[in-house]
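Minutes, project check-in
Item: structure for the 188-residue chain
Input as provided by the requester:
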Amino acid sequence: MSLEPEPESGLLVRAQRLVPVARALVGKVRGLALVSAVSAVVLWGVLFAPWQWVGGVTLGGVGFALLVLALLLLPAGAAFLGYLMLTDVLDLPTRLRAKAAETTEHTAAVLRPSEEPKRGRLFGFFRAIWSARSLLLDSKGAWMKAVSAARLARLASLPFVLALLGAFALNFAVIGAAVLAVLLVLVF
């Protein structure tokens, strides 16, 4: 029996190569969400001219304007939520490794013979237990996220994928509409 590590599977190697690409795409999704949100506010400002509301506007008019703003911000919010979810999934292995290292360090500190008073060693013992608890909860959360991702992948039917692509495309529609509205305001 050899103590050397087993060679990594081809699937794991491919997944590790995709992580930098996924991180770059996640950054672009965040940028798209930000640009889409700013574009939605600009488009809403051009359409409803809220600076002119000082002269008097009905409560129903303000409510309708705010409803339109919320609808315009919806694609940006969805893109930002996707960014947060993907960032959390990509950062999960690093967080778990850091928690495991912290737990190992606390446990080793308690087991090392030292001249500390009993109270200090007792505090170190409880710190090691608390660190192990934190690692356990984080890894449990990781399993729940993996199960959720598997369920989401199972839902990835054609209508779901088309709806997701449509929601993503709405960001570009909002940005394009804002650019067009600003150009029309500047020209006319």
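Outcome recorded: The CA atoms of residues 160 and 169 lie 14 Å apart.
No further action items on this chain.
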